[in-house]
Amino acid sequence: MRIVFAGTPEFAKVALARLHGAGVEIALVMSQPDRPAGRGMKLQASPVKQFALDHGMAVAQPRSLKLDGKYPEDAAAAQDTLRAVQADAMVVAAYGLILPAWTLALPRLGCINIHASLLPRWRGAAPIHRAIEAGDTDTGVTIMQMDAGLDTGDMLLVQALPISAQDHTGSLHDKLAELGGALMVEALQRLGQGALPRTPQPAEGVSYAAKIDKAEAALDWLAPAAWLERRIRAFQPAPGASAVIQGQALKIWRASVWPHQDAAPGTVLAASAQGVDVATGQGVLRLHRLQKAGGKPLEAGEFLRGFALQVGLQFEPKAAA
Prior knowledge:
Elements: E1 2-7, H1 10-21, E2 25-30, E3 35-37, E4 42-44, H2 47-54, E5 59-60, H3 72-85, E6 89-93, H4 101-105, E7 111-115, E8 123-124, H5 127-134, E9 138-145, E10 155-162, H6 169-192, E11 208-209, H7 225-234, E12 241-245, E13 248-258, E14 268-272, E15 275-279, E16 284-292, E17 298-299, H8 300-306
Protein backbone atom coordinates (compact mmCIF):
# COMPACT_ATOMS: atom_id res chain seq x y z
CA MET A 1 0.00 0.00 0.00
CA ARG A 2 1.50 3.29 -1.15
CA ILE A 3 0.06 6.33 0.60
CA VAL A 4 0.21 10.08 0.98
CA PHE A 5 -0.15 11.22 4.59
CA ALA A 6 -1.77 14.59 5.33
CA GLY A 7 -1.70 15.90 8.90
CA THR A 8 -0.29 18.64 11.10
CA PRO A 9 -0.45 18.40 14.94
CA GLU A 10 0.68 15.83 17.50
CA PHE A 11 -2.50 13.75 17.04
CA ALA A 12 -1.54 13.21 13.39
CA LYS A 13 2.13 12.62 14.19
CA VAL A 14 1.21 9.63 16.35
CA ALA A 15 -0.66 8.07 13.42
CA LEU A 16 2.20 8.78 11.03
CA ALA A 17 4.64 7.09 13.41
CA ARG A 18 2.40 4.01 13.67
CA LEU A 19 2.10 3.73 9.90
CA HIS A 20 5.85 4.16 9.48
CA GLY A 21 6.51 1.53 12.13
CA ALA A 22 4.13 -0.88 10.40
CA GLY A 23 6.12 -0.64 7.17
CA VAL A 24 3.52 1.29 5.17
CA GLU A 25 5.07 2.94 2.12
CA ILE A 26 4.68 6.69 2.70
CA ALA A 27 5.45 8.37 -0.60
CA LEU A 28 4.70 11.93 0.54
CA VAL A 29 3.80 13.79 3.72
CA MET A 30 1.67 16.93 3.53
CA SER A 31 1.48 19.36 6.44
CA GLN A 32 0.46 22.95 6.97
CA PRO A 33 3.08 25.67 6.47
CA ASP A 34 5.43 26.47 9.35
CA ARG A 35 3.93 28.87 11.88
CA PRO A 36 5.55 31.39 14.27
CA ALA A 37 5.54 30.12 17.86
CA GLY A 38 7.28 30.59 21.20
CA ARG A 39 8.52 33.76 22.84
CA GLY A 40 10.65 34.67 19.84
CA MET A 41 7.80 33.86 17.41
CA LYS A 42 10.20 31.96 15.20
CA LEU A 43 8.84 29.75 12.44
CA GLN A 44 8.41 26.20 13.69
CA ALA A 45 7.70 23.00 11.80
CA SER A 46 4.59 21.05 12.73
CA PRO A 47 5.02 17.77 14.66
CA VAL A 48 4.12 15.87 11.48
CA LYS A 49 6.66 17.71 9.35
CA GLN A 50 9.38 17.26 11.95
CA PHE A 51 8.76 13.50 12.17
CA ALA A 52 8.76 13.23 8.38
CA LEU A 53 12.07 15.08 8.03
CA ASP A 54 13.64 13.05 10.84
CA HIS A 55 12.76 9.87 8.92
CA GLY A 56 13.75 11.03 5.44
CA MET A 57 10.25 11.44 4.03
CA ALA A 58 9.35 13.89 1.27
CA VAL A 59 7.30 16.84 2.55
CA ALA A 60 4.94 19.29 0.83
CA GLN A 61 3.37 22.32 2.56
CA PRO A 62 0.84 24.00 0.26
CA ARG A 63 -1.03 26.96 1.70
CA SER A 64 -4.19 25.78 -0.04
CA LEU A 65 -5.45 22.96 -2.25
CA LYS A 66 -8.18 25.03 -3.92
CA LEU A 67 -7.32 25.64 -7.56
CA ASP A 68 -9.64 28.66 -7.60
CA GLY A 69 -8.68 29.91 -4.14
CA LYS A 70 -6.26 32.44 -2.68
CA TYR A 71 -3.11 30.45 -3.55
CA PRO A 72 -3.83 28.74 -6.90
CA GLU A 73 -0.10 28.29 -7.56
CA ASP A 74 0.25 26.20 -4.38
CA ALA A 75 -2.78 24.12 -5.30
CA ALA A 76 -1.57 23.53 -8.86
CA ALA A 77 1.87 22.45 -7.64
CA ALA A 78 0.28 20.12 -5.09
CA GLN A 79 -1.94 18.61 -7.78
CA ASP A 80 1.08 17.91 -10.00
CA THR A 81 2.98 16.39 -7.07
CA LEU A 82 0.10 14.14 -6.01
CA ARG A 83 -0.44 12.92 -9.56
CA ALA A 84 3.24 12.09 -9.87
CA VAL A 85 3.24 10.18 -6.58
CA GLN A 86 0.45 7.85 -7.77
CA ALA A 87 -0.56 6.82 -4.27
CA ASP A 88 -3.15 4.14 -3.61
CA ALA A 89 -4.72 6.21 -0.83
CA MET A 90 -4.37 9.46 1.10
CA VAL A 91 -4.52 9.16 4.89
CA VAL A 92 -5.79 12.34 6.56
CA ALA A 93 -5.54 13.16 10.27
CA ALA A 94 -6.15 16.69 11.59
CA TYR A 95 -4.63 18.21 8.46
CA GLY A 96 -6.37 21.57 8.76
CA LEU A 97 -6.89 22.27 5.04
CA ILE A 98 -10.09 21.56 3.14
CA LEU A 99 -9.67 18.81 0.54
CA PRO A 100 -11.41 19.81 -2.71
CA ALA A 101 -13.12 17.30 -5.00
CA TRP A 102 -10.04 16.73 -7.18
CA THR A 103 -8.04 15.65 -4.13
CA LEU A 104 -10.71 13.22 -2.91
CA ALA A 105 -10.93 11.59 -6.33
CA LEU A 106 -7.22 11.32 -7.11
CA PRO A 107 -6.01 8.26 -5.14
CA ARG A 108 -7.21 4.85 -6.30
CA LEU A 109 -8.75 4.12 -2.89
CA GLY A 110 -9.69 7.71 -2.11
CA CYS A 111 -8.96 9.69 1.06
CA ILE A 112 -9.32 8.03 4.46
CA ASN A 113 -9.71 10.06 7.63
CA ILE A 114 -9.02 9.40 11.31
CA HIS A 115 -11.75 11.15 13.29
CA ALA A 116 -11.69 11.27 17.10
CA SER A 117 -15.34 10.54 17.83
CA LEU A 118 -18.03 7.93 17.30
CA LEU A 119 -19.61 9.39 14.19
CA PRO A 120 -22.08 10.86 13.52
CA ARG A 121 -21.70 12.34 17.03
CA TRP A 122 -19.27 15.26 17.17
CA ARG A 123 -18.52 15.92 13.56
CA GLY A 124 -16.26 18.94 13.21
CA ALA A 125 -13.17 20.57 14.64
CA ALA A 126 -13.16 19.84 18.39
CA PRO A 127 -14.69 16.41 19.07
CA ILE A 128 -12.52 15.61 22.12
CA HIS A 129 -13.26 18.89 23.91
CA ARG A 130 -16.98 18.72 23.19
CA ALA A 131 -17.36 15.10 24.33
CA ILE A 132 -15.87 15.93 27.75
CA GLU A 133 -17.82 19.18 28.03
CA ALA A 134 -21.10 17.38 27.28
CA GLY A 135 -20.46 14.71 29.91
CA ASP A 136 -20.26 11.83 27.43
CA THR A 137 -19.26 8.56 29.08
CA ASP A 138 -17.55 7.22 25.98
CA THR A 139 -16.03 8.36 22.72
CA GLY A 140 -13.77 6.62 20.22
CA VAL A 141 -12.26 6.70 16.77
CA THR A 142 -13.95 6.41 13.40
CA ILE A 143 -11.94 5.57 10.29
CA MET A 144 -13.95 7.22 7.55
CA GLN A 145 -13.98 7.31 3.76
CA MET A 146 -13.94 11.03 3.07
CA ASP A 147 -16.51 12.74 0.88
CA ALA A 148 -17.33 16.39 0.15
CA GLY A 149 -19.27 16.88 3.41
CA LEU A 150 -18.06 17.77 6.90
CA ASP A 151 -17.18 14.36 8.38
CA THR A 152 -20.14 12.77 6.59
CA GLY A 153 -18.38 9.94 4.74
CA ASP A 154 -18.97 6.22 5.10
CA MET A 155 -17.48 4.50 8.14
CA LEU A 156 -14.80 1.85 7.63
CA LEU A 157 -13.80 1.02 11.22
CA VAL A 158 -15.16 2.20 14.56
CA GLN A 159 -13.86 1.52 18.06
CA ALA A 160 -15.19 2.98 21.30
CA LEU A 161 -13.16 4.21 24.27
CA PRO A 162 -14.53 5.10 27.74
CA ILE A 163 -14.13 8.61 29.14
CA SER A 164 -13.16 8.50 32.80
CA ALA A 165 -14.14 11.11 35.39
CA GLN A 166 -10.46 12.16 35.52
CA ASP A 167 -9.95 12.51 31.78
CA HIS A 168 -9.19 15.94 30.38
CA THR A 169 -8.69 16.84 26.74
CA GLY A 170 -4.93 16.24 26.96
CA SER A 171 -5.17 12.73 28.41
CA LEU A 172 -8.05 11.70 26.15
CA HIS A 173 -6.25 13.13 23.12
CA ASP A 174 -3.28 10.85 23.78
CA LYS A 175 -5.45 7.74 24.13
CA LEU A 176 -7.40 8.52 20.96
CA ALA A 177 -4.24 9.32 18.99
CA GLU A 178 -2.83 5.88 19.79
CA LEU A 179 -6.12 4.18 18.98
CA GLY A 180 -6.44 6.13 15.73
CA GLY A 181 -2.97 5.10 14.58
CA ALA A 182 -3.60 1.43 15.34
CA LEU A 183 -6.98 1.45 13.59
CA MET A 184 -5.54 3.12 10.50
CA VAL A 185 -2.85 0.45 10.21
CA GLU A 186 -5.59 -2.18 10.35
CA ALA A 187 -7.74 -0.29 7.87
CA LEU A 188 -4.97 -0.06 5.26
CA GLN A 189 -4.15 -3.74 5.64
CA ARG A 190 -7.78 -4.71 5.11
CA LEU A 191 -8.26 -2.24 2.27
CA GLY A 192 -5.29 -3.78 0.50
CA GLN A 193 -7.03 -7.13 0.75
CA GLY A 194 -10.37 -5.72 -0.46
CA ALA A 195 -11.97 -6.74 2.84
CA LEU A 196 -13.18 -3.51 4.41
CA PRO A 197 -16.89 -2.77 3.79
CA ARG A 198 -18.24 0.77 3.94
CA THR A 199 -21.13 1.61 6.26
CA PRO A 200 -23.13 4.84 5.81
CA GLN A 201 -23.39 6.97 8.91
CA PRO A 202 -26.76 6.87 10.71
CA ALA A 203 -29.09 9.77 10.07
CA GLU A 204 -29.87 9.97 13.79
CA GLY A 205 -27.54 11.25 16.50
CA VAL A 206 -25.73 13.90 14.45
CA SER A 207 -23.98 16.62 16.46
CA TYR A 208 -21.29 19.16 15.64
CA ALA A 209 -18.14 19.95 17.60
CA ALA A 210 -17.56 23.64 16.99
CA LYS A 211 -14.02 24.98 17.14
CA ILE A 212 -12.99 26.13 20.62
CA ASP A 213 -13.15 29.90 21.13
CA LYS A 214 -10.83 31.26 23.83
CA ALA A 215 -13.73 33.27 25.24
CA GLU A 216 -15.45 30.01 26.19
CA ALA A 217 -12.78 29.31 28.81
CA ALA A 218 -14.18 32.02 31.12
CA LEU A 219 -16.07 30.34 33.97
CA ASP A 220 -19.64 31.54 34.48
CA TRP A 221 -20.47 30.99 38.17
CA LEU A 222 -24.20 31.09 37.44
CA ALA A 223 -23.82 27.73 35.68
CA PRO A 224 -24.07 24.39 37.52
CA ALA A 225 -20.91 23.14 39.24
CA ALA A 226 -20.99 19.84 37.32
CA TRP A 227 -20.94 21.67 34.00
CA LEU A 228 -18.12 23.98 35.11
CA GLU A 229 -16.04 21.00 36.26
CA ARG A 230 -16.42 19.37 32.85
CA ARG A 231 -15.43 22.61 31.13
CA ILE A 232 -12.28 22.81 33.22
CA ARG A 233 -11.31 19.34 31.98
CA ALA A 234 -12.44 20.07 28.43
CA PHE A 235 -10.22 23.16 28.19
CA GLN A 236 -7.09 21.49 29.57
CA PRO A 237 -4.35 21.92 28.40
CA ALA A 238 -5.65 24.75 26.19
CA PRO A 239 -7.01 27.35 26.42
CA GLY A 240 -7.32 26.70 30.17
CA ALA A 241 -10.38 27.63 32.22
CA SER A 242 -10.17 31.17 33.61
CA ALA A 243 -11.65 33.11 36.52
CA VAL A 244 -11.17 36.59 37.97
CA ILE A 245 -11.25 37.64 41.63
CA GLN A 246 -10.45 41.12 42.93
CA GLY A 247 -9.21 42.06 39.48
CA GLN A 248 -6.69 39.21 39.30
CA ALA A 249 -6.94 36.54 36.61
CA LEU A 250 -6.55 32.90 37.59
CA LYS A 251 -6.42 29.65 35.64
CA ILE A 252 -8.28 26.68 37.12
CA TRP A 253 -6.82 23.28 36.23
CA ARG A 254 -8.65 20.80 38.44
CA ALA A 255 -11.89 20.86 40.42
CA SER A 256 -14.58 18.66 41.90
CA VAL A 257 -18.31 19.01 42.58
CA TRP A 258 -19.76 19.23 46.11
CA PRO A 259 -23.30 19.60 47.49
CA HIS A 260 -25.08 22.92 47.29
CA GLN A 261 -24.70 25.63 49.92
CA ASP A 262 -26.95 28.68 50.04
CA ALA A 263 -24.76 31.52 48.78
CA ALA A 264 -24.50 33.86 45.82
CA PRO A 265 -22.77 32.27 42.81
CA GLY A 266 -19.06 33.08 42.76
CA THR A 267 -18.75 33.40 46.57
CA VAL A 268 -15.72 31.80 48.22
CA LEU A 269 -17.16 29.50 50.90
CA ALA A 270 -13.95 27.89 52.16
CA ALA A 271 -10.23 28.02 51.40
CA SER A 272 -7.86 25.35 52.68
CA ALA A 273 -5.39 22.70 51.55
CA GLN A 274 -8.39 20.58 50.56
CA GLY A 275 -9.43 23.19 48.00
CA VAL A 276 -11.20 26.49 47.43
CA ASP A 277 -14.97 26.06 47.60
CA VAL A 278 -16.95 28.41 45.35
CA ALA A 279 -20.73 28.66 45.15
CA THR A 280 -22.24 28.20 41.69
CA GLY A 281 -25.72 28.32 40.19
CA GLN A 282 -26.16 24.70 41.29
CA GLY A 283 -23.80 23.08 43.77
CA VAL A 284 -20.30 23.98 44.92
CA LEU A 285 -17.15 23.81 42.82
CA ARG A 286 -14.04 22.91 44.82
CA LEU A 287 -10.92 24.22 43.11
CA HIS A 288 -7.95 21.89 43.66
CA ARG A 289 -5.31 23.23 41.27
CA LEU A 290 -4.94 26.93 40.46
CA GLN A 291 -2.52 29.28 38.74
CA LYS A 292 -2.10 33.02 39.04
CA ALA A 293 -0.87 35.22 36.21
CA GLY A 294 2.86 34.75 35.73
CA GLY A 295 2.94 31.75 38.08
CA LYS A 296 2.76 28.02 37.66
CA PRO A 297 -0.09 25.62 38.43
CA LEU A 298 -0.17 24.73 42.15
CA GLU A 299 -2.24 22.53 44.42
CA ALA A 300 -4.65 24.55 46.55
CA GLY A 301 -2.64 24.49 49.79
CA GLU A 302 0.53 25.73 48.16
CA PHE A 303 -1.36 28.23 46.03
CA LEU A 304 -3.02 29.79 49.09
CA ARG A 305 0.35 30.41 50.75
CA GLY A 306 1.08 32.95 48.03
CA PHE A 307 -2.42 34.14 47.15
CA ALA A 308 -4.97 35.13 49.79
CA LEU A 309 -8.47 33.85 49.03
CA GLN A 310 -10.59 34.68 52.06
CA VAL A 311 -14.05 33.33 52.77
CA GLY A 312 -16.68 35.75 51.51
CA LEU A 313 -14.69 37.11 48.59
CA GLN A 314 -16.50 37.13 45.28
CA PHE A 315 -15.32 35.88 41.90
CA GLU A 316 -16.45 38.10 39.05
CA PRO A 317 -19.65 36.77 37.42
CA LYS A 318 -17.99 36.20 34.05
CA ALA A 319 -14.21 36.04 33.72
CA ALA A 320 -12.33 37.57 30.82
CA ALA A 321 -10.59 34.89 28.74
